[in-house]
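The methods section describes the discrete structure representation at length, but only in general terms. An entry of this sort, consisting of the sequence and the corresponding backbone structure tokens, reads as follows:
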Amino acid sequence: MPNSALLADLYQLTMLQGYYEQNMEELAVFEFFVRKLPENRGYLVAAGLAQVLTYLEQLQFSADEIEWLASTGRFKPAMLDRLEILKFTGDVHAMPEGTVFFQNEPLLRITAPLPEAQVIESRIINLLHFQTLIASKAARSVLIAPDKLLVDFGMRRAHGSEAALLAARASYLVGFAGSATVAAGMYFGIPLFGTMAHSFIQAHSSESEAFVHFAEANPDHIVFLIDTYDTEAGAQKVVDLAAALHAQGIKIKGVRLDSGDLADHARKVRNILDRGGLNYATIFASGNIDEYKLEELMAEQVPIDGFGIGTHMDTSADAPYLDCAYKLQEYAGIARRKRSEGKATWPGRKQVYRNYDDNGVMSGDTVTVDNSPCAGQPLLHLVMRGGKTVARQPTLIEAGEHARRQLNGLPASLRQLSNTPEYPVIISAELQALAKIVDEQWAFQV
């Protein structure tokens, strides 16, 4: 995946030119947070930290990039000289991937010389926003159907190749069993799942012939797509072929439904398979499925064993973006605060503390200044120092285990797909006092 230093907005570079000319290179603190949760979202799940750390460790302008920037005529030679040697040398504090978080809680804090902390803004937002968005969407399906096989089917309608890969990763992080995207297996070690397309059936002279040819070509991974022509007739053909295939040492694993009334088809297909002695064969369904459709099917106790979830998840169709920001909170040892209408920030370096009830269920968070500990479990941890990751970072599987524990700790009311209450996030008295001091100092200066 690309990690070019040019993955930035132009204003990051124009600001750098100003910073360098004025020798503004003291330590700055930026934080990434979500101002407000999307409608019908009771929580979010942090994801994308691994890609952020890789990006920061590799940050460097190539000779070709410097040459191209020079050709634009926008940047002075002194600026280009600085970009040639620019690397990230700062510290990163972050919530571990898979951590549940809420509004106004920083899930990442960057502490670095101002030019370094500024130039990474857009790529940091880009990486954290997308995976957090998809992980949060996917987690809703995991909580609705915890005992079902869930597979990412969304590559073909994802917004580009990087989005497809990162969506596979984000959904696996929160509990999906795997993905149909082959590259996700190579890059992230994610288990792969797949069946067949209608075109394979259509290319043959008969549905039965297509089933036989597919089984002989893939004897260990047979899931037949049975709704190309007539779903129930397709199921009966699978039953009729089972004995002959079994004689060749080939066992049918299951069938897939991709259209029509899934509940009605699944019940009829289950009866056909069971009557034909294929009670072990699973039913897998796909086709415009999301957590809302899952909720309906689960409520009706439809006999479907697994689901391929694609377009709606990989685009987070009902909530396609987060109101997130990466903002300066301190510079040169002085707390800073944005006071724009509707976009005001809380100043200074912050920490988030979480409390649980006696049953291990999240009961409330407190956002406070970093040097003012309070009751609860701190959520932000040092993950990079001096531009290098600290010790060993969790594997994707370990991050997934953390995500599972986090989701298990959600209050029941936040698991709902709609009408979710607002989780209590307290802004500490110390943080409010700091904001007042910053406001008073600013009012005096102007």
About this structure: The radius of gyration is 26 Å. The CA atoms of residues 67 and 73 lie 11 Å apart. The domain at 10-134+319-445 is CATH 3.20.140.10 (nicotinate phosphoribosyltransferase). The mean pLDDT is 96.
